[in-house]
Amino acid sequence: MKIGIVSDTHDNLPAIERIVERLNAEKVDLVLHAGDFVSPFTAGPFGKLGAPLVGVFGNNDGDRLHLARRFDEIGTIYAGHHTFEVDGVRVVLMHEPKSIDALAASGAYDLVVYGHTHKVDVRPARSAGSGPLAAPGQPAAAVVNPGEACGWLTGRSTAVLFDTKTRTAEVVF
Predict the structure, then answer these.
(1) DSSP 33-51
(2) DSSP state of 12
(3) DSSP letters spanning 78-120
(4) What CATH number does the domain containing 148 carry?
(5) Residue 137 belongs to a domain
(6) How many other C-beta atoms lie within 10 A of the C-beta of residue 170?
(7) For residue range 29-51, what is the model confidence (pLDDT) as tens digits?
(8) How far apart are CA 47 and CA 74, in angstroms?
(9) In the chain, how many domains are there?
(10) What pTM value is reported for the model?
(11) Which domain holds residue 8?
(12) What is the CA radius of gyration of the chain?
């Protein structure tokens, strides 16, 4: 299964349109949004996704009720963090990077996704004992912050493609 991961779209409609086109071209099966959609009108370009969307609210999301309603037919946006399993991968999706390394090392998740920093952070899963994230006897999760889809701060609009079979992530754009 191929998952598209985005965050921090911050109302940049042209950037959202480009990302949606790319995710559709890649034939992703699911899109994760790690928060900061900002305004309900971002549902317009996201409505063209060929895959369902699962998102969480960020610290800059305004009218959350209206935002959630506009996304009703596209997917679901959760408050706080959201945990779920897809294609055998245990995922935690959040906006702010709270306890990222501890979550990755806990063995409770295979994929830890966050946003907020506007900086790309893609770390592969590590086997038990093989790296700083690996707790003794526990596999460490892959960690993904796709950076900023909007490109407002860095000048670079980014997203990530994650393959659930290989557990690998690729930054696109």
Answers:
(1) E-S---SGGGHHHHTT-SS
(2) -
(3) ESS-EEEEETTEEEEE-SS-SSHHHHHHTSS-SEEE--SS-SE
(4) 3.60.21.10
(5) no
(6) 11
(7) 999 999 999 999 999 999 999 99
(8) 6
(9) 1
(10) 0.93
(11) 2-81+114-126+143-172
(12) 15
